[in-house]
Known about the structure:
The complex is a heterodimer. Chain A is 25% helix and 28% strand. In chain A, the strands form three sheets. In chain A, strands 1-2-8-11-10-9-7 form a seven-stranded mixed beta barrel. Chain A is of the alpha+beta class. The relative contact order of chain A is 0.13. Chain A is extended and about 95 Å long. The radius of gyration of chain B is 19 Å and the shape is globular.
Amino acid sequence: MAGQGIWSGTISFSLVAIPVRLVKAIEPGRVSFHMLHSKDYARLSRKMFCPGEETMVPTDEIIRGYEIAPDKYILMTDEELESVSPERSRTIEIVEFIDMEEVDPVYYDHPYYLVPSKGGEKAYRLLVEVMRRTNRAGLAKFVLAEREYLVAVTPRDGALALTTLHYSEEIVPDEDLPPKKGKIAAEEQSRIKKSIEQMIEDFDPGKYANERRKKLMDLLATKAKEKALVEAPVVEEEEGEGPPDLVAALEESMRKVKSR
Amino acid sequence: MNRTFVEMAGKRLSLSNLEKDFYPSDGFTKAHVLEYYRRIAPFILPHLKDRALTLKRYPEGVGKGFFFEKRCPSHRPAWVKTAEIPQNDGERMTVCLVNDLETLIWAENLASVELHVPLARANSPETPDSMVFDLDPGDQAGILECARVAMIIRDLLSRMGLASYAKTSGKKGLHVYVPLNRKETTFEDTKTFSKAVAGIMQKHYPDLVTARMAKKERNAKVFINWSQNDASKTMICVYSLRAREKAIVSFPLEWMELEHPAGLGDPERLQVTHSEALIRADKKGDLFREVLVKEQKLPHL
């Protein structure tokens, strides 16, 4: 099950450090399509267009601007951006242990698993067991792909699950969402309560499947069998000889090859 | 569906439809395909190792339609090694790594007759460990013209201090590999270098070579496809079967064999069949071994 992992390092708190790898807990079943030109089936590419000059813009002329007012920008260079990015880190440092019940599910972002790397199995099992018994989750900060995440590490089925959490400033305030209070008749309340009770089941996610995805995959399989395929044309890349030094050296070698 | 259960290295595999004719004109069944890969495994596995496999599956046999599968099927057994490959859209994709015989047989049971792999390993997807010249003949050219072009490229590169190795594509063409095996190499390097070589070849041998992709420009010429030197491209793995009429293999050749191909009379003699492949590999060892280990630096970049 566990692949190579998308990150490897150590999980640590106080004096314990356990080598681990981070692996995905979910694999989205999204079916993705490419955009093609209806006339020749060429795969379309995105180009940056400058409406000022009415021309395509090469990559080396593209810079970054933060819009501070309409049409007013603060420029930001790669170096400046890097200066505020967190340093790459090889540790998940648990800073506190919390009660996971206190965490509103709205904070949950993305689930992963931590699996032990070589040599870490014993300490890993110990940590899982202790966390399970104390029913606590470790709260940690963690840098992945230049972003700093707040994460909760919890025991799950003998393994450690890691869930990235949203920062509180990302959560939309909800005090305006509930409607103003009004009177509800007691009989109406008990009627609704009754119909809810009739529908109570144990949660079994296996009962539900992504029907659209299944139908879509069946349709694709049928069409592939019927060979309903189109082929993209071969597209020429730009001409150009290459670096002058290299071209000169190749010409010299070619002269020797031919004069043999 | 007919199923056969086998156990390999303690791993249980369920093999299906072994009697299905995979190469009908060759009398080559799915069982034959699996047997070929089992016997060629010591030679092909080092070349598949740690590379993101693209499965090219022919569920009904060759000539009956196929599909590519880059994502490692989610129904894979737990012991199949995988890697996460970043994609253009920033998402990551789980791919299969064929690092052992069991995984190879599992992939073949999925009717993945052709095995395609990138020029870089999965843990360093931006570092090609070889540069390749994919020689693809036009309609009125063939493997003999490719052999001529391959030898000129070999001589040209050798003048620049670079050793190269050739294999048949198993279709009509030849592939020339230049081992690099240095972590500093980028696809931009290999692309720039191979493109310059293709350009100079076209300039000096305009009747034999084209560096342009357009099919109509090929005719009797050999197209030097340098654009395969790209992180997103894959090449047919050396020793892989090809899905053509007969069970032909992409097989490494000695330069000597290419120097006197005319003596063979029939250019098809350069093609290596599955049975020949096993005999020759046993006798000569892996002629592509150097491609995996030889360290070379591309000069003048």
